[in-house]
Structures are given as structure tokens and as C-alpha cells.
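Troubleshooting log. The previous structure file for this entry was overwritten by mistake, so regenerating from the original sequence record. Sequence copied from the archived sheet and checked twice against the printout by T.R.
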Amino acid sequence: MSSPEQREWFANDVQPHEPALRAYLLRRFPDVPDHDDLIQDSFVRTLRARERGRHAIGKAYLFATVRNAAIDWLRRRRAKPAEPLPADEQVPALDPAAAIPEQCDQEQRLAAAADAILCLPGRCREVMRLRYVDGLDTRDIASRLGITPETVRVQLFKGVQACIQHFEREGLIDTRATARKP
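Regenerated output below.
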């Protein structure tokens, strides 16, 4: 944060939500050990989004960001069960820095996808979340939301198109270059 305007915006529009974010995390994600880290990470993501020109960031964006951070933490924990190594086995030396670029790249991609989905209208965002986060199929989404499967397909199409446009605006993809290739 460099400008006085940004500091004022953060102090007035973001930081006052910290107690509510903390209470939300305690209630919704009591197993996550460090709520402070998730809140700080959400603040950083919010500031970055504002720096990229998203000036309509509000309470809903902040809560969605902290929720996504908590879900990411839970997924990482579930995906990597701890297995103790036998004491008598030789373990080859590993270069821990080798996987860091790939991990950072994946985290940036996930953050960009979350930003794109958060920009969608309510129903479209919900359909995209149910499909790509919860893994539900078209019929399950339609049943859960009380809409037709065709409406689900239309919302998914619109959501994907809007996400592509978001990625283009953010400079993450250039579909013009790939469209020109034979």
C-alpha cells in the first residue's frame, strides 16, 4: 500500500471486517489452526485485486476470499496425509526449492480463477462453484438449485466465457494468438 487513498480505503473499508472474518472462520472452519494467516492472506489478495483496478471490492469479496483460503488449506491437508518414514531407511536428499515455482504457479492460477468466479453474477457463480469446486454434474446442480439442466448448461457456458474474458483482461491468456494458429 503506497498511497494515502489506499491506506484510507483499507482502514475504512477492509480492516473493520477483521473481527467478523475471525468469528466466521472460528464458526465455519474451527479445524484450521491459524486464522490470522488466512485473514492476512485475504487482506493481501484484496489489496492486489484493488491494485488491478477492481474498485467495487466489498465485504462479500473479503468473506469469499477468506473462505476460499480456508478451503484451500483443508484440501492441502487432506491431500497430503502424514506418513512417518521408517528410521532405518535411507532417504535421498531432496531439493525442496525444486517444487516451489510449480506450487507458486498453481496458487496464482487458483487465485486468478477465484477472482474470475467472484466477478460472475450470483446464479452463474453458484453454478460454477457447484460444478468446478464441489464436482456436481448438471442434473445434481439443477436439482439442488431448482432449475432445468439446460439452464445449468447455459450458466456454465456463460461462466466459462466470462472467466476467459477476465483472464484476457488480466493478461493471463491471449486467445487472439491461439485463434490465429492453424
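The chain has a mean pLDDT of 77. Archived copy saved in two places this time.
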